Known about the structure:
Elements lengths: L1 E3 L8 E4 L2 E11 L7 E8 L5 E7 L3 E4 L3 E11 L2 E6 L5 E5 L15 E7 L2 E6 L3 E9 L13 E5 L4 E4 L8 E5 L4 E5 L2
Amino acid sequence: MKISGVDIRPGNIIEYEKGIWKVAKIQHTQPGKGGAYMQVEMKNLQDGRKTNVRFRSADTIERVRLDTKEFQFLYAEGEMLVFMDNDTFEQITLSGDLLGDARPFLQDGMQVNLELWDEKPISVELPSQIEATIVDADAVVKGQTASSSYKPAILDNGVRIMVPPHIGTGTRIIVDVYEQAYVGKAS
């Protein structure tokens, strides 16, 4: 589907210079002289390159639709990850780089969504929130106000996040995977 250069939005997947790109940020600029344009920051989903491109309203861009399919994570083999198609039970091996900063939150047996382009996986989406256990939390400093003070804690997957002072070692919490932030206590 073709769209105008000024209709690009964050999260759009577009075809540009024979590659598939995901739009990260946009900035609409209307200079005093000349036509308006959209400054677009995007990442190539095939090789990870990033670029900034200026699109004018006269430019037409091909917007790409990706197929999404549910897979189950089985195990890691070094830097490679093995997933199983829930429908056909077929296994595929992908690079751990597809997950980026969310990689430590991947758990055995976790259901994930793979985005496919021409039947090839180009990105892995984890659930937005997971449960994790605090393995180490700093002690509360006396005299700090509870309203705005957070303390560092380390999760069972090795990720360091900030938690409220009442959260101690051994507590199960809910964590936002992509923000790497405390959401609440697990029930």
